[in-house]
Amino acid sequence: MNDIDKHLTETFVSGDLVFDGHFLKVQRDQVTLPDGSLTQREYIRHPGAVVILPVFDDGTVLLERQYRYPLNQVFIEFPAGKIDPNEDPLACAKRELLEETGYSADSWEFVCTIHNAIAYADEHLEIYLARGLHAGQQKLDEGEFLEVFRAPLTDVCELVRTGKITDVKTVIGAFWLEKIQSGLWSPATPSN
């Protein structure tokens, strides 16, 4: 936090872990608001994840179709996965691409970090561009079921426009790829 934001900042007073699940944790903290009053904040603790934007030499992209239980439907998504404790995000991206799709890549570039649920979770997603793709064998986790397919980026953007792709990481990834492929944007340099 910098001094310019001090008048907006909430200060931690005390906290409790109210749910400790295998994947997610729920935290309840008491905080002091900028005006000095006290309130509670409940939020999900998440270990972070990676998103891979796999691009073939012809510009088409690799996507997945996967059922997501909380919303009871199949979603079209870019490959992604949870970062394991002490795992380097790029190593995670390489592992997830191979496990979920069977593909590996010759070239990797960091694109950006996004925070997809800032009001109720500390989750961050590290987005990577993967090029020079080589097919291999999928190594899905036990209980993981998904289909992999290839599509032109224009089709992906149309699916976003028409509301057939609503997954936030995939929407943002498609916009980034559209800007990168048009030459308007370059992948970002990670900030520390």
From TrEMBL:
Its cofactor is Mg(2+). It comes from the Bacteria. It catalyses: GDP-alpha-D-mannose + H2O = alpha-D-mannose 1-phosphate + GMP + 2 H(+). GO terms for cellular component: cytosol. GO terms for biological process: nucleoside phosphate metabolic process; ribose phosphate metabolic process. GO terms for molecular function: hydrolase activity. Transmembrane segments: none annotated. Coiled coil: none annotated. CDD domains: NUDIX_ADPRase_NudF (cd24159). Pfam families: NUDIX. Residues 44-173 form the Nudix hydrolase domain. Keywords: Hydrolase. PANTHER family: NUDIX HYDROLASE DOMAIN-CONTAINING PROTEIN, UDP/ADP-SUGAR PYROPHOSPHATASE. Belongs to the Nudix hydrolase family. NudK subfamily. This is GDP-mannose pyrophosphatase. It comes from Sapientia aquatica.
